[in-house]
Amino acid sequence: MKRLSARPTWLIMLALAIAEITSSFEVSMAFVALPTMNRVFADPATVSWILSGFFIASAGSVALFSRLGDMYGRRRMLILILLVAAIGSLMSAMSDSLAGVIAGRTLQGLTGAVLPLCLGLMRENMQPKTLAVNIGIMSGILGVSAGLAFLVAGAIIDHFDWRAMFYFSAGMALIGAIAIWAWVPASQPDANRPRLDTLGAVLFVPAISGVMLSITFGKAGWLQLQSGGLLIASLLLLAVWVRHELHHPWPLINVRLLADRRILLANLVFAAIGIGPMLSATVILAIAQQPEWTGAGLGLSATASSLLTQPTTFMGFIAGPAAGLLAARYGVRTAMMTGAAIVALGWLPLLVNLTAMPILLLNVIVFSFGIVVLFSAASNQIVLASPLERTSEAMGLAQVSRGACAALGSQVIALILAGSMVEPNGPGQAFPDAGAYRLVLIYLVLCSLAALISAWLLPRPPKSLDGAMTQRVC
Asked: Which CATH superfamily, name and number, covers 7-183?
């Protein structure tokens, strides 16, 4: 029988909400700051590691700290993550070098495990009759805070030095850690949990990092040791990691679940989302802030460009229920295909015109609706296809797929944009030209089509969501 907290539920929810808002800000602020960081450091390919390092750490932390939370207490792990994130933010703020900023961002990436730990703490401390409602509230907080984080980060960059953004995130993380310590009861560790798969954790991060580093170095030629050699070595290490996870009795990331075709294809959808569409803010905010004289930009401030992302927040309230209704009426497979098709179509107007505000806003609205439908349907597919007792593992695997591919995708987009630049007549920073942006948009369309094809390859389920669930239970 689970232990329930004597503390008021609203107080626990407030503490967990602060932690989740901190996690959202850590993600969103980098997208807003990327154009500024490119101007400051004038090295787009390396600056992209501000995103890549974060996503690598985030992908690893989801699996690692979720397991550590089960073993040693979720509250303890959540406080630790927030404290480390605060240290990472201070490191980025006080660093004069790009390498120091990236190192700090990598530590901030541990906040990728905040949401699963928060959900676990909610289940520990809340009555079943209130749990579902509070999870819905937390999901709403997640969506709204992500949109507001764009605005806050934009305002900070416009009115203060870029370092202030990291000082702000450090303060948020410290407040979150104190709130969790003061208002959330200590977790009861599970003494019967299996041992931690340490080798799996050690092998995964360098394998993924090596693949991305080789892509960064690939512009010098793939016959070089630091590009082609590193890629081959990293892929071999990744193969060793997969073999280890397949044979480990308690793997860190249970890749054996991919033997089910439905879970495999749903993970391919998450991978396609991560490697392209998930990074849409990188492209939208870059176009919005790029000077008009480049032929591909609106010349907006960071705050004004952040306002363009706000339809994402409102689309979440509309597209979420729409995705559920679509899945219930026509099946999860159809909902996934519909979402992927809308996402792909959303990029087409921008291919024609890169300097019109209405077109950029239309892109954000259409894309936001489609990505919520696609993400919701893909999550439902994972839940329906996985065994009841392994649903969390299956969702964790999908999160890792999405996070690792997002790290890889940020490198691909940065290299495409850096491949064709336009320079001012006098001294000044070079910017990606219209051709580079169109190549990135084509890349995003192809990623969306990859998600569409993966969804299409799924076996046809029963026509209704209820029927699918009934079939699984029976």
From this structure: MFS general substrate transporter like domains (1.20.1250.20)
φ and ψ of 48, to 5 deg: -60, -20
For residue 122, what are the contacts with CB-CB under 8 A and spacing of at least 6?
Answer: 12, 13, 16, 131, 134, 135, 138
Neighbours of 219 (CB within 10 A): 12
Nearest to 63, CA basis, from 77, 51, 47: 77
Closest CA to 50 of 38, 63, 66, 67: 38
How far apart are the C-alpha atoms of 219 and 154, rounded to whole Å?
32
Is the pTM here over 0.85, yes or no? no
pLDDT for 327: 80
Domains 7-183 and 254-422+430-474 share a fold: yes
Write out pLDDT tens, residues 115-160. Answer: 888 878 887 888 877 776 777 677 667 767 777 888 888 899 888 8
**pLDDT recorded at residue 77:** 92
In words, the CATH class of domain 254-422+430-474 is mainly alpha
Nearest to 208 by CA among 41, 63, 35: 63
Bridge partner list, 432: 421
Measured in degrees and rounded to the nearest 5, phi and psi for residue 193 equal -65, 145
Q: Which residue type does 296 have? A: A
Residues 6+ apart with CB under 8 A from 369: 315, 318, 319, 322, 342
**Which tokens go with 79?**
């406080």
Residue 237 makes CB contacts below 8 A (sequence gap 6+) with: 203, 206, 207, 210
